[in-house]
Structure formats: structure tokens, C-alpha cells
Specification:
By secondary structure, the protein is α/β, with parallel strands linked by helices. 42% of the residues lie in helices and 17% in strands. An 8-stranded parallel β-sheet has the order 1-2-3-4-5-6-7-8. The protein binds nickel (II) ion. The site of nickel (II) ion has 5 residues, from loops.
């Protein structure tokens, strides 16, 4: 069973102690590809370094909505330049995060950066990785206004309604499903996993966060992806092999890896 991890943060400080050990265990465990996703200028650098050091790691370059405050004036140009580095397969993660009580001014700045980076992705002909939390309508409005479907990409760690997931699918987007799908109380996400066609689903950990059952609450890693695969297989009434193979093919299509 070969697995494509579509969203991880192995540059996170939670991996400082044993990063090499974990990364070297992944290919042996069937984790064939990992896309490491950045969120601010510092993690762009560490993500590109990981991609340069490991054959199986690819990079996503972008500014996370929670990191848009206080950036130097030239950051957008700097990000544009980093997109030209080897093994960059996406712009991300970008979007809106209204979970925290941001001032309206910051919410507006998030929107500015979201639109700007959709523009960068279009220019560079790269798909986007969308992060959206507690901002369902605002995110969808911008995606429609900016015609993001023609750019392509994934709504990662999808957390809204099954109906909205289908709107994203119709737009041509992939839906990223991770550890939350294994949680007993994750009714909405289970319904989403049932509703979205298998060919539009990619799997992810978002590690070190959001470890699936039975490891909920612990530090997450791509080694937990079989639990996500198993949950989706059960929901859809198909085999784990089918889920692994389809999500592997889907992620290669999403990130345009030959
Ligand atoms: Ni993430």
C-alpha cells in the first residue's frame, strides 16, 4: 500500500528532537510522497531545506492567514521568488482563519493576502492549498470572485458542510481529509467523506497536529495515515487499498507530480 501525505509540517519545532529518525522511517512504511507546507517566511526556508534534503519531500510555499501581520513590505515579492525553487508544487497554506478574535483590520489583511497569493499561484501556474477556519462564507466568496477553480488546489483539513464540499468539488477543487474523520463526534466530516467522490479526496495529517484515533492528542506523523485510510474505507464501504491507491493518484494529479 503506497501512501501520499498531502499536508505535513515536519519543520515544526515539535520534530526538533527526532526529525531525521521519523523522516527516515516514512519511505519504509509506504509513505511515498510528503508535501511539507509552510506558513511564514521562516517556515518557507525550512520547508525548502527539507525538500532539498529528502527525495520524497515536496514543498508548498505561502503565508498562512494567522501570520499576515507585521510582514515586511517586500514579502510578496520574496514569496514570488521562492516559488521558483526546485520541488515547489503548490502555493500554501493560504486563506482565512477567523477562529481567533482578530480585529476587523486583521481580517481584512487576511483577505488581501489571500487574494494576492491566489494571484501568485495563477502567475506561477501552481495549485493552491486553502486553509479556512470559521470563515466558510468569506472563503467561498473570494474563491468564486477570484475564479480559484481555474487555478486548482485543495481545501485542506476540510471542516464545513458536505454541501459546501460539493460546491468546491464542482469548482474542481480537491477536499483534504485528515485525522478528524476518525473522531466519534465528527459527524459532519464523516458525511462529507461519504458525499465527496473518491476521486476528489486527498488524505493528510497536518502533523504534528490532529492525530487520529487511537492516537488522538499525541504528536501526529504520517505513520498515522493508515487510520485515516481505514476510516474513509469504512465510510465508503470499499477496501483500504482502494482508498490508498485513489488518494495517491489524486494527490499526484493535484500537485502535478509525474
Ligand atoms: Ni497545515
Amino acid at each position: 500500500m503506497l501512501i501520499f501525505e498531502s499536508h505535513a509540517h515536519y519543520d515544526d519545532e515539535q520534530f526538533d528532537e527526532d526529525r531525521d529518525e521519523i523522516l527516515s522511517a516514512l519511505p519504509k512504511s509506504g509513505i511515498e510522497y510528503v508535501v511539507n507546507v509552510s506558513s511564514n517566511p521562516e517556515s518557507v526556508k525550512s520547508t525548502l531545506k527539507l525538500a532539498a534534503e529528502h527525495d520524497f519531500i515536496y514543498a508548498a510555499v505561502g503565508i498562512h492567514p494567522s501570520d499576515v501581520e507585521g510582514l515586511p513590505e517586500d514579502t510578496l515579492d520574496w514569496v514570488r521568488e521562492q516559488l521558483k525553487a526546485p520541488k515547489v508544487v503548490a502555493v500554501g497554506e493560504i486563506g482565512l482563519d477567523y477562529y481567533w478574535d482578530w480585529e476587523e483590520e486583521v481580517q481584512d489583511l487576511q483577505k488581501v493576502w489571500f487574494r494576492r497569493q491566489l494571484g501568485l499561484a495563477r502567475e506561477a501556474n501552481l495549485p493552491v492549498i486553502i486553509h479556512s477556519r470559521d470563515a466558510a462564507k468569506e472563503t467561498m466568496d473570494i474563491m468564486v470572485e477570484e475564479d480559484a477553480g481555474s487555478i486548482g488546489g485543495v481545501v485542506h483539513c476540510y471542516s464545513y458542510s458536505p454541501e459546501m464540499a460539493m460546491d468546491y468539488v464542482k469548482m474542481g477543487m480537491f477536499i483534504g481529509i485528515g485525522g478528524v474523520v476518525t473522531f466519534k463526534n465528527a459527524k459532519k466530516l464523516k458525511e462529507t467523506a461519504a458525499a465527496v467522490p473518491l476521486e476528489n479526496i486527498v488524505i493528510e495529517t497536518d502533523c504534528p497536529y490532529l492525530a487520529p484515533e487511537p492516537n488522538r492528542g499525541k504528536r501526529n506523523s504520517s505513520l498515522n495515515l493508515p487510520y485515516v485510510i481505514s476510516a474513509i474505507a469504512e465510510i465508503k464501504g470499499i477496501t483500504e487499498e482502494e482508498v490508498a491507491q485513489a488518494t495517491y493518484d489524486n494527490a499526484k494529479r493535484l500537485y502535478r507530480i509525474e
